[in-house]
Amino acid sequence: MGQCVKDLENAGVDRVQFDVMDGNFVPNLTFGPEMIAACRKYTDLPFETQLMVSQYNCETMLEAYVEASKGPNGEPGVVIAHVEANHHLHRVLAKIRQLGGSPSVAMNPHTPMEMIKNILDMVDHVLVMTVNPGFGGQAYIPTMLEKIREVRAAADAAGFEIDIEVDGGIKADWSLSQCCAAGANCFIAGSGMFAYPSLKEGCDALRQVAIETRAGKVLSKP
Fold first, then answer.
1. What is the pTM (predicted TM-score) of this model?
2. Which residues are catalytic?
3. What Cα–Cα distance (Å) separates residue 151 from each residue in 127, 134, 209?
């Protein structure tokens, strides 16, 4: 894992996202805060941790996740709580901020934007899942574009400077381009980046699509 994050740093990524899964909220199991913390000595890149976990796991281990996600000098790391998993979302997000993290919220594909409208003032990032979380390699769900537009419109109307992330099936093609045009500005890629001969080629290809889209060249779905 240490070598992996170093390889990603050398490839030019802006952040490393860790997908924490507990086998309850999603049907898969990955790792906990100890693994994330162990990776810190191998890179100075910002970390973000997506908590695809039950409310119990999120609340009982929140301090450990926030601490593991911090930067090399204690800078706030992004910690993402799922709206569906947390009945007391205000409390969780406030706790992340209190502990020195950057509070963020994620939504599954079926979750309407209205579920987060009352916490937009508390978060630095909104993650719109473009697949159902739990497994890599899934196909991008294009109907999420309207949700991205809704989140961007609500944030702009309220004057909140919020990053909108998309995660799931994002590739250096129309999927990334259309999400970018809809208002997303952070793009999480797994298989869409590793599909290239080198990680740098994958990172460069993804970033180039975003740059060109911002310049007005929006790719259409084939």
1. 0.95
2. 19, 167
3. 10, 23, 22
